[in-house]
Structure formats: structure tokens, C-alpha cells
Design brief:
The chain is of the alpha/beta class. It folds into four domains: 214 residues, Spore Coat Polysaccharide Biosynthesis Protein SpsA, Chain A (Alpha-Beta Complex); 77 residues; 192 residues, Rossmann fold; 165 residues, 3-Layer(aba) Sandwich (Rossmann fold), CATH 3.40.50. 44% of the residues lie in helices and 18% in strands. The strands form five sheets. The protein has a seven-stranded parallel sheet, sandwiched between helices.
Length: 702
Amino acid sequence: MSRPVAAPVRESGRLGLVVVNYGSVRLVEQNLGQVDLTGLSVHVVLVDNRTTEAEADAVRALAAARGWQAVLLPDNRGFGGGVNAGVAAARQAGCAVFLMLNPDATADPTVLDELRLECLRRPDALVSPRVLRPDGSVWFDGALLDLADGATRGGGAAALRSPPAGTQPWITGACLALHRELWDRLGGFDESYFLYWEDVDLSARCLAAGGALVLREDLVAHHDVGGTQERGAGRAKSALYYRYNCRNRLLFAARHLSRARMLAWVWRTPRATWDVLLRGGRRQLLHRPGLALAAVRGSAEGLRYALAAPARRAPASGRAGRVLVVHPGAELYGSDRMLAESVAGLVGRGRRVTVALPGPGPLVRVLRDLGAEVVHCPMPVVRKSALSPRGAAVLLRDVVRGALPALRLVHLCGTAGVYVSTQVIPLWAPLARLLGRRVTTHVHEAEGSAPWVLRFLLALPVLLADRIVLNSSYSRDVLLGALPGVLARRAQRRSRVVYNGVAGPPRGTAARAEITDRLRLLYVGRLSPRKGPHVALAALADLRGRGVDAELELAGSVFPGYEWYEAELREKTTALGLDDAVRFSGFVDDVPAVLAASDVVLIPSVQDEPFGNTAVEAVLAARPVVVSATSGLQEAVRGFGSAQAVPPLDPGALADAVQRVAGSWASYARTALADAAAARGRYDVARYRSEIADIVTQGGTT
């Protein structure tokens, strides 16, 4: 697609430029090594897929001479695995945009910087320039995938803007840029492709996630086509080229297509294999017959993927099988609301959905209204207490009690897949795998401060899932950090970050024009020590001590067994002399209403949060918000000018932030209204429902 009209963007956001080397360091030095990057906001990562020690030494020397970062992998992880490792390093260096460039490709600094800026303008897009051969002819200016047989061909920019019926556009990975937010949503490259088709797969997942493919026709990169291939008469392709192109055509079909369309690709495999072989000319086959064997081998490997896929997929109509959804509670807080949105997405695809809950609660009515069947089933939940002898005994008792009912539910209601919402209910994934069901685990937790043993125990059942969904990059980092290297890489390959879909008003309702009476502060959420409402009380007392006339509404209730904490909050309110300025509203079903009646929303969590639904709800309601500077909360409000982050457990800093809002009320109110519009796109509910439905049902292009 050609360059869209976009609003100006500040030139912020560092570029992480990733080059994956495999025995081609000479090409890297001849291409990117000759580009003057001085003055460009860029961090170059040169990744070496292991070949020889001498090649690794050459990579290390080139990186040191150019001021780049070298990442020396102990083995060959293929193109996707190498890029994923390079992006991880670029992320650690603070990069906001990632650009992958082939060793035999090059681009001017102005082109690289324009790609960076385009990604900052379009954080939902994969962005590529036109790519020319050394002789000036066009190598890439947009490409199409023929959904009838899997053939790929050039399409031109016009075809990208309006793809012909029966085709899907895709963008090359030879010079490809994207924002960190989109990378996290897509989960990076699928490493199972190893070589070739990773960019086709990434493009398909981008489009399925509601993203865009952007071709900057005014920007040009150059590609010495085949520079990393073996050279010979007619520049014949390598055996790896033939093997993985034939294999991955069918792997893509197994991952993305309906059963009927995938079988059509299978039927056309002999012809497709021959077409791939002819890309290197007929003469090569006379001198190197082994190339034909490589292509046949690749097609055979791909056929195994394709023919096994129907057993792992939901039926095409979705009505011959049922999806079992499992959730550990029936309230209507953050993860409960996301569970309801996930179910809405599945029901909207025509799936029959059964939801297993441990007991009654307000979530039950919501799920039934959506058209789902709700059943109750005892289920063990892993908590910190499981590390004690008594806690471990209770957990074991719950496992014994819940195993047979859970097994029966998986057998009867999980024929089209099992969706496990949260990682704290570890019994369901192993039981589902035992019965041969496809499992998706959605991780909403990120207990980064929890003991490593507990994090490891929570992470182990997640490894049994076919797909792992995470609600933030922070949640992903905590999960992978709890696992040793091999297991972490295995989990990463199956992982995908999907930001929550958060419902807000159709349009943000502007805050009142001026503060004519008390400043209305709002806390929404569980009354829990870790959520920090006591910090909000202390900040209110501080504000009133400064002469700021403010009041605070606490909209939420406690977990059963935590009634002592609410009593403690009430006692603290009285002790601070705030009885006339604090209102305990209890659980509130209509969150938009209390947000609309507020001026500033406080989220003073004292521990790391995996995400920040309440923070997003505040932004969508066009209200300034102050959050604790913890990983998930900061990720949720990143880029919104009406949001401030302050150190946890610091009432003074919280009061300072509120006072800044009060002192510049008109400015914060205007910014909050603009932020609401941006948040509707980033946290769109329809996008979330579609992504979850795609993942759980293994859907995609049909």
C-alpha cells in the first residue's frame, strides 16, 4: 500500500537495525558496513547464526569496528530465530522501531530514518521501501499470494492497495520495519519456518490482527539478489532454498488456511514443487540432481504438516465441535471482563462455547447473555501458599477433587479446543493434551516479584499449550524469565502478545471545562493491599494539607477473606480526618458512569501489574490518569500525554502529579480527549475479539 497521509510525528524513538548473518559477513561489510550512520538514531545488531569459529570472530571484529552490537548464537536458528534474537537485543537497548535488513541489501541513511519515522506514525503497520536490483530493475514493490495454490508473485503498489480477489498481499523481509507495539502483538517471527515464508506469515498475521502493510514507493533500498545463495551457472539456488520454499508453502497452509483451501494446495503440490525448482533454471538439474531431491524432501515435510493439521483444527464451520473455556473466577474485574470479550469473539465466529467456572458470580449472567453455556467445576488454583506444606496439601486435595470432573468436561465440551484463561489453573492444559485437544493458554499474570520456584511451577503447564497468549510484553518477559533457556525458546515460539480490548464510550466525553468545586479523584478496582488504595488515601490527605480541595471515591470490593483490609481503610480514613471526603462505593458494574463523574483517576499499585485495564478505561473516558511506575501499567499508558507515572508507595509523588493536573487543568483535559481517540484504536474490542478467535480456533486466511 502506498504511503498514507499521516499526522506529523516527533522524531523520537530509536531504530534497532537487525542483520542476520550466516557465513556472509563479507556481504554485511560490503553493504551496511559502507553506510555512514553518523547522526542517525540507530542501534545496529549483527546476529551470527553459527557456522564456524572464524566467521564468529569476523562478526565480532566487524561489530567492534563499526560500533555495533554482536549477538553470537550457539547454533543456527534460521532467519526468523536470528531476527527474534536481534530484536530482543535491540529492545534491551531501548529501541522503539525494529528494521531487519538482509546481509546482501543496503539503504541510504535517509531511507532508514524515513522508515523509522513511518513506523512511529503508523505503529500498526509493516513498512517496506521499494527494493531494486543492482541493475536498477524492480525486485520488490509489493507482492501477492495466490490463495488458490500458494503461488507468490509481484503485484505492484496498486495491487497492494487493492488486492485482486483470491489473493493476499505480503511484504518482503529483506528490508522491513515495524514498531515495537506491533512486534509485541504479533510475537515476532514464527521460528518454525527456519528459512523463507516468514515474511508471508508475518504479513498474514499482521492483517489478521487488524494491522496494515505499507509500501513507501518514494523510498528505495538495493538488494544483490541471491548474494547469500550459492553461486554457480545461472545463479542456481541452494538446496536449502528449494527444501524450505517447498516445505514452508504447506506449513503456511496448515497454519492459516481453511481445511478445504489447504487441501487444494496439497493437490497442487507436485506442480508447485516443479515451479520452485525452475526458479534456478533447468540446466542446474543436469549438474546437481540433488537439488530436486531437496525440493521433494521439503514438499514431503510440508505434506506431513498439512495432513496432520485437520486433526488439530476446529471444523471449518465451527459447529461440529465445541470450545471449552476455563476461568478461575466469576467476578467482573479486569481478567474476568477480558474472558467475556474472548467468549464474545468465539461466539461471534459461530463456535459453541462452554465456560467452566468454579462457582456463581456476576460473570455468569454476562456469559449467558453472550450465548455461552456456563457450568461449575471445582478447580485447583495455584497461589503463593502452595509453597508451604499446608498449602501444597490443599492444592493436591483440590487436584484430586477436580481431576475427574475436568477430564469429563474436556472430553465432552473441548472437541474444538480448550482455552485456559490465566496460568494459575494448571490442571486443564495437561488433561486437554492427554485427550489430544488443542490448548490455548492466556496469561494475564506477571508475578515478577514472586519466588522463582513459584514462577517456574506456574510456567510449566503453560509449556503444554499449543499457543500462548500474553496480555503485555511484561507478562511475556516474566513468563520467559521463569524458564531455562531451551524451555524459554520453546515458549517464545508459541507466544503472542495480544493487548486487551477495553470497552469505552463511543467517543471520549470531555472533562468539565473548569474545576468549580472539589477535585474529584477516583480509584476503581479491587480493594487489595497490592492495588494500593491506602496510598490513594494518604495522597488525598497530603493534597488537603496543601490546600487542594479534593475528594476520593473508592469503587471496588475486597476478595472474600480480605474484609479486614476494608475495615483498615475505613479506620485510616477516619484517622486522617477524611470521612467527609472519601466515599466507599463497593463493587460498581457501570464503570463508564463513575469515570464520567470523575476528574482524575488514580491507579497506585504497589507491585508490578501485568497490564492496566483500569488505566486504559480512564484514557478511553478522556480522564487524566496517574499510575504507579510499574512495568505493565506504564506499557498500557505509553504515549498518552494525559497519563503520568509516579514511584509506587509514594503518596507525595502521587499528590504532586494530581496537583500538576489541577494546576494545568485545561491543557490536561484537551490532551485527555485526544488520547481517548488514539486509545480506541490501540485497544479496540473488535480487534481483540478477532485475534483471540483466530488463535483459539487456529483460523486465519480462508
